[in-house]
């Protein structure tokens, strides 16, 4: 499947989660989306990512909207606690559905394929470059950061020292990385210009992801779902 | 028609986005209680101006949204306003001396509060699942409205982060060799 197809499914999902006002309906939708997350590859990583975001958020929403500190510290009587928590639960379910839907879409767009799809897309070359090149560059920077950290460790910088020493280490670690990368900026720009960057609207990309009939059908389905949900909202 | 950004500025913005993505990792590696996810935006603001920094900030969060979760994408306007205000401050000479850098960081934090508070209060119900939720709940308990509690918490959480980010970016750009900064015609004065 083309990496962009998954993202086309998100707008109707967003509209649907906003449209549904019943907690049980949202819980059912969330259940379906979580099953979809579990069905693909990297299920443990994606489920963990969802849980790491949603479980602390649930605790935060209960703390803020349940007003437990009012009762605990000030002895206040919070009579509308359940109504507040109901509203918070609805919000949590909506966010949970969107995050789960995004995990399903992201599974279809691993960074390497997304980069190729962006370079091969009909987006203006500068926009495609700006969105795709950081994905490539950040992998290089992570390797460089590991090298800089090793080098600075050998010179006595201790990433496990007390916090004020760690804060001082920040410049020693970030400095070489930033200066190193900024020195490359000119070379990268010259290399791009030398290869007629932006001279033509389309570029040739080796092994570009193919937009199949299945992708077209899914896009049409996503558009139809979006119009249906938007229409039902406007109708009521 | 001339493109909005030169190729050199585009490659700088790409590097800025990558800094934002990687230096956040550095903060967690050093176990520092700050985000450091806007240093690249500050560097671009100093070297290429407010518009390039705005685009850098927005693109960073959109890419984060694609790579991890849409929560980062929801805060893209916040990242954009950091770049815009930092760039405007840099243009106005706000990064020439240490006190001016601190004032610029304060202005950036105020702008962050203005943009981030409604997103956090209305889109996420005032909670984000971090330790800051406790302060929101506490301020709520002592009588502040939810939006006020969120605004105060966002200000407190972001002030230290933006001061450190602005100082680090300023120090790094000051340390760059003159032959390198000379290749960026829109670079702001840093001394």
From TrEMBL, chain A:
Gene Ontology CC annotation, any one: plasma membrane
Keywords, alphabetical: Membrane, Transmembrane, Transmembrane helix
Topology relative to the membrane: Multi-pass membrane protein
InterPro entries cross-referenced by the UniProt entry: ABC/ECF_trnsptr_transmembrane
Cellular localization per UniProt: Membrane
Keyword RNA-binding among record annotations: no
Membrane-spanning intervals of the chain: 20-38, 50-69, 89-109, 217-235
Family per record: Belongs to the CbiQ family.
Record's protein name: Energy-coupling factor transporter transmembrane protein EcfT
From TrEMBL, chain B:
Keywords for this protein: Membrane, Transmembrane, Transmembrane helix
Full protein name: ECF transporter S component
Membrane spanning residue stretches: 12-30, 42-64, 70-89, 101-123, 135-157
Origin: domain of life: Bacteria
Coiled coil: none
Keyword Nucleotide-binding: no
Organism whose genome encodes this protein: Crenobacter intestini
């Amino acid at each position: 499947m083309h990496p962009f197809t998954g993202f086309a499914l998100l707008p109707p999902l967003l509209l649907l989660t906003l449209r549904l006002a019943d907690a049980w309906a949202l819980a059912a939708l969330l259940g379906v989306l979580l099953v979809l997350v579990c069905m693909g590859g990297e299920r443990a990583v994606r489920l963990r990512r969802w849980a790491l975001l949603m479980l602390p958020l649930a605790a935060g929403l209960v703390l803020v909207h349940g007003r437990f500190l009012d009762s605990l510290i000030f002895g206040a009587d919070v009579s509308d606690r359940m109504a507040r928590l109901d509203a918070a639960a609805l919000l949590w379910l909506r966010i949970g559905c969107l995050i789960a839907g995004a995990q399903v879409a992201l599974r279809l767009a691993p960074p390497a394929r997304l980069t190729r799809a962006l370079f091969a897309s009909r987006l203006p070359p500068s926009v495609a470059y700006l969105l795709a090149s950081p994905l490539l560059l950040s992998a290089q920077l992570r390797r460089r950061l590991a090298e800089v950290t090793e080098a600075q460790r050998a010179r006595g910088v201790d990433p496990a020292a007390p916090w004020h020493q760690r804060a001082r280490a920040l410049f020693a670690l970030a400095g070489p990385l930033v200066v190193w990368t900024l020195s490359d900026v000119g070379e990268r720009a010259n290399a791009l210009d030398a290869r007629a960057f932006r001279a033509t609207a389309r570029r040739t990309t080796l092994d570009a992801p193919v937009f199949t009939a299945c992708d077209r059908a899914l896009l049409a389905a996503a558009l139809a779902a979006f119009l249906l949900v938007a229409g039902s909202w406007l109708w009521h | 028609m001339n493109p909005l950004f030169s190729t050199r500025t585009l490659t700088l913005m790409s590097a800025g986005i990558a800094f934002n993505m990687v230096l956040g990792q550095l903060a967690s590696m050093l176990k520092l209680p700050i985000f450091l996810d806007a240093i690249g935006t500050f560097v671009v603001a100093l070297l290429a101006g407010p518009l390039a920094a705005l685009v850098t900030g927005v693109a960073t969060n959109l890419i984060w949204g694609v790579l991890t979760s849409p929560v980062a994408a929801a805060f893209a306007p916040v990242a954009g306003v950091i770049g815009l205000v930092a760039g405007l401050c840099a243009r106005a000479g706000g990064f020439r001396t240490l006190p001016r850098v601190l004032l610029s960081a304060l202005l950036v934090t105020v702008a962050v509060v203005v943009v981030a508070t409604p997103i956090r209060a209305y889109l996420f119900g005032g909670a984000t699942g971090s330790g800051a939720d406790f302060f929101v709940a506490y301020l709520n308990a002592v009588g502040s409205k939810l939006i006020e509690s969120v605004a105060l918490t966002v200000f407190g959480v972001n002030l230290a982060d933006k001061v450190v980010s602005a100082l680090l970016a300023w120090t790094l750009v000051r340390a760059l060799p003159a032959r390198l900064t000379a290749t960026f015609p829109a670079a702001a004065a840093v001394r």
